[in-house]
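Researcher: Sequence recovery benchmark, item below. Answer with residues only.
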């Protein structure tokens, strides 16, 4: 059964928009989560902005000739129908099983997603119609491009259910952050704790970088010893 899409507090989006995926992996590691970086998700083009949103999941399985046909694109269970269920601000996260010789979405589907206000597309597969997709302005993270359509290698089966994408378990309404390093998943139940810790980690690392630029040595600074922690806390009180 598909799960309802939940909104994401704009304040959370704003905070996470200032946090790198590298920082998030460190914060999640400290909370015991190692497998949160979605493999095979690289920005389709340089300069894409960092994007934050709740995961709207889509799932493909291996192609079966009686189901994976061009006629299936008009089925009630299709990528077209899934796109019409996507809320504004979500990130479409697509389990394409790592298949790289069949493009899951092309320019028309990406254009419709962009018109619906979808924040981005993340997949462990590939897209097609690259020039047209780039023209839509939809931020895409994937493994690259392929001319053949999805039905050449995949069968679409459902949306808004748990999936595996790039070796990571993704549940509907988990939070995804994507930037130039790829895509990181934040479990929905850990969101508040992760945001608080991540914002603080970014502030700390900004202070450390300033110290390094001023000639400070790394031992005792990164990570900070007690003396440097005290110096940082004194500084942080002036900017929080």
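Model:
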């Amino acid at each position: 059964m598909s799960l309802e899409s939940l909104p994401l507090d704009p304040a959370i989006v704003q905070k996470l928009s200032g946090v790198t995926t590298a920082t998030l992996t460190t914060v999640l590691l400290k909370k015991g989560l190692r497998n949160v970086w979605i493999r095979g998700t690289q920005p389709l083009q340089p300069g894409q902005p960092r994007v934050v949103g709740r995961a709207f999941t889509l799932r493909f399985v291996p192609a079966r000739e009686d189901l994976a046909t061009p006629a299936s694109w008009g089925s009630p269970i299709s990528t077209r129908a899934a796109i019409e269920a996507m809320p504004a601000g979500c990130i479409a996260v697509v389990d394409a099983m790592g298949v790289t010789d069949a493009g899951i979405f092309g320019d028309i589907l990406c254009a419709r997603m962009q018109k619906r206000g979808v924040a981005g597309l993340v997949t462990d597969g590939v897209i097609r119609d690259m020039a047209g997709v780039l023209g839509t302005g939809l931020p895409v993270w994937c493994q690259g491009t392929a001319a053949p359509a999805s039905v050449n290698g995949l069968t679409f089966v459902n949306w808004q259910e748990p999936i595996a994408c790039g070796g990571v378990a993704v549940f509907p309404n988990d939070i995804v952050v994507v930037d130039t390093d790829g895509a990181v998943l934040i479990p929905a139940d850990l969101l508040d704790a992760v945001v608080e810790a991540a914002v603080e980690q970014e502030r700390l690392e900004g202070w450390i970088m300033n110290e390094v630029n001023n000639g400070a040595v790394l031992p005792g600074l990164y990570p900070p010893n007690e003396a440097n922690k005290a110096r940082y806390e004194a500084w942080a009180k002036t900017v929080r």
